[in-house]
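Tutorial, part two.
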Amino acid sequence: MPLTQQQFEHLEKRLHEERARVQHDLADFSQPEADDDMRDRNGDLSGYPTHPADLGTDANTEEVDATIATRQTAELVLIDEALDRMTRTPELYGICENTGEEIPFERLDIIPWAKTVVDSPPN
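Running the prediction step on this input gives:
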C-alpha cells in the first residue's frame, strides 16, 4: 500500500528533525575546544600530559570523535538524498532500490532515509 499524504508529510518532518539533530551533533565536533576545558574533562592537572597514558587516552578520544563525525556526515548525506527524492521523485521515496518493493511505513518512521526494505549485512 503506498504511503498516504499524512504519512508522507510525517516522514518529511522526521527527516528534517533528524537533519537538525545530526547538524547539531556535527557542530559540537567542529567547535574548537579550549585547552582548559579539555584538561578539566580529562582530569589533567596541568596543560602538559606528563604520562604516556594521558597521550593515549587523548588520541583515543580524538579518534572516536572523528569516527562518530564521519558516521554522522554519511548519515547527513543519506538524509539529504531522501529529502531530494521526496522533492524530485516522490513516487520513488519509500521504494526499495534493490527490489522495487515498498518499504514499510514502520521502517521509514524509524529510519526515514532508508533506501532498502532491509539493511544488508556489513562486509
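The radius of gyration is 20 Å. In part three we will examine how such features are distributed along the chain.
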